Amino acid sequence: MRVVGTQNSAQKLSRSKSERGFKMRNCFLGSFFALLAVLALAPVVCAETTPQAPSPKTPAAKAQPADAHDISGIWRMLGPGQARARAATVGGGASHPTLGNDRPPLTAWGQATWSQTKPSGRNSKLAYVFLPDQKDWNDPLFVCDPAGYPRTGGGNSLYRFVQLSNEVAEFFERDHVWRDLWTDGRKLPGNNAKPRWYGYSIAHWEGETFVVESGGFDGRTWLDLQGSIHSDQMRLEERYKILDHDHIEFSMTLNDPKAYTAPWVGPKQMMERMDTSDGVAPGIWGKKPDGTAYGDIREDYCVYSEEHSFWVNDNPTGDGDNFGNAVSGAQRK
Prior knowledge:
The chain has 333 residues and is an alpha+beta fold. The chain has 2 domains: 219 residues, no CATH class; 31 residues, no CATH class. It contains 3 helices and 10 strands; from the N terminus they run H-E-H-E-E-E-E-E-E-E-E-E-H. The protein starts with a helix and ends in a 21-residue tail after the last helix. 22% of the residues are buried.
């Protein structure tokens, strides 16, 4: 009996020690995790209770400007000194991309070539001769030869630039033609390249100015309606400086050592953005979801049958010429 009692007492004593040990381990672990929690919260408490030096303010982010390297859109060239178009009619205020009246002296070849021009009745110092009778004129446009550049942009023509990954395509209303202004790093072709009516062009950006260099022109075109000439050695540099979203400053310089003794530097001109050509019937395309009109440029081809009739008659009855003079006999249509 005593043995059994002793064994029972020993088992109770052993269980009591085990329970105390378990409780002590629990107490130790609880204190350990509590300490970790305090240490983790200490920086937060200190941050809330300890005065901190004010952190420097981050400057407000500035609004990003629109991409300055983009001249996409429809544009109208204004005359030198003009800041806005004179009228909202077709071609109102539009002008040639002009080289101006300060033409440099001609070379002997240039003088001989210029002497063959017979412009359309314009009494100007740029014209070699003044011939009021249209039968004497020999402007290449009257037989619908390509106008070439820069003349194709003249009169009431508008420009449409389309920016692509490797070029800027420049479309013209007049003759519905275009130029490829290559921006992919290529160089202008050499002197063995076949001349083109609108030449060959490469382009690059200099800051906010789009610079176009052109060469390889066909020498048969005139630069303007006054009969200013050029040779197949003509080189053009055009500069399109973006002023704001709706305005570009344009200037052009001509170098042609075969025709002129010095560069011909044109005046600065303004180009203004247009939503659509004023030669397109309003509303024919409907409207965009935002309520604005869709843009478009008109088709303005030179059709010989129409062009010839235009310069002979000013009305379908054939009673007068383009300048309001009565015609008869063989001239009458």
